[in-house]
Amino acid sequence: AAIEKGNFEHYMLKEIFEQPSTIFDCMRGRLLLEDKKVYLGGIREYIDQLSNAKRIVIIACGTSLHAGMVARYLFEEICRVPVEVEYASEFRYGNPVIRDGDVVIAISQSGETADTLVAIEKAKEMGAIILGVCNVVGSSIPRASHAGVYTHAGAEIGVASTKAFTAQLTVLYLIALQVAKEKGTIDNERFKKLITELDLIPEKVQQILENSYIAQSLASLYMDAKSMIYLGRGYNFPIALEGALKIKEISYIHAEGYPAAEMKHGPIALIDEEMPVVFIATKDHTYEKIVSNIQEVKARKGKVIAVVNEGDDVVKHLADHVMEIPETDPLLTPLLAVIPLQLFAYYTGVLKGCNVDQPRNLAKSVTVE
Ligand code: G6P
């Protein structure tokens, strides 16, 4: 059946607004709050291999790679396993070292991305266990994998990925939590706190969406920018990359994502009164550092847009504009912080008259090299 846009002007907007329910659907039957447990049927036969893995290698492209980059911080923090994240296109033509006991996680919305498919086939030949995190059921990557977890986000029509990304993140959180519990690298209190917070994410995403007019008004202020810089640290660094990717894809504004502290090694040279800098400045152990980065940008007359936690008066006073998100565990912030950035990119693209559902030169699924 044809997928309708309903009351939405574009598929992309519809898909952004579907996220409270797609994240919820993704956790259904998997996050068992009452039993204090996470259960993923798709990887039940491989949970031992995953828990005993000496290393996890994550392979993906585009937005899916950014989900993988969040997962790196996550698996390292709560599962205490080294993780590498590789562009599929680099992995396939490189000479990667795959050792016994390595687990490869391939992330792909379509399940058809040629580079990702070839990369996992190569890793499989080298003896790795391949787990897929895909959206399209029965697609090539799940079929080439040993096992996997579907993201259940429903069909994504907009070329720029939104709801599939948050569903990928949700699956990766679930996998990491199950593995951490299995390995005993997380204590019961922390585990309980994280599953409780994860369960609250859909309603918090809903709250952000109810304030979408803020992203819309910022879009009208910055739609003529020639370039933008996106900065974040830790869990929010991949979200800075994703925010920059979204604005490039949808509005054709050049943008770069950077780890905030790397700003002084290059991007700071670009800052003047014409340059909008988007910070993800939520409350975690790097917050004070980000605050000083914001001051550095302001001292050079850059325009600062900051994604902050509700009630953050410090950044509100420093920044030109803020987009607020509810508080959650710092580890889960990516699921919330990306939402205002999706909205900002969407509205900027619409105001510029771009074809947001079908940006020029891009394809939904890149099945050729
Ligand atoms: C294309 C799409 C992106 C997507 C990337 C990876 O570039 O336009 O939205 O993130 O491919 O696709 P996959 O289906 O493997 O997630």
TrEMBL record:
Molecular functions per Gene Ontology: carbohydrate derivative binding; glutamine-fructose-6-phosphate transaminase (isomerizing) activity
Q: Which keywords are on file for this protein?
A: Aminotransferase, Cytoplasm, Glutamine amidotransferase, Repeat, Transferase
Q: Where is the SIS domain positioned along the sequence?
A: 46-185, 218-359
Residue ranges of the TM segments: none
Task: Please name the top-level EC class of this enzyme.
Answer: transferase
Query: Which residues does UniProt mark as catalytic?
Result: 364
The catalytic activity, as recorded, is: D-fructose 6-phosphate + L-glutamine = D-glucosamine 6-phosphate + L-glutamate
Q: Name one GO cellular component term.
A: cytosol
GO biological process: what's one of them? carbohydrate metabolic process
- Main location (coarse class): cytoplasm
The EC number on file is: 2.6.1.16
Cellular localisation: Cytoplasm
Q: Which domain of life is it from?
A: Bacteria
Sum up the protein's function in the record's words: Catalyzes the first step in hexosamine metabolism, converting fructose-6P into glucosamine-6P using glutamine as a nitrogen source.
Give the quaternary structure.
Homodimer.
Q: What is this protein called?
A: Glutamine--fructose-6-phosphate aminotransferase [isomerizing]
Region of the whole protein represented? 243 to 611 of 611
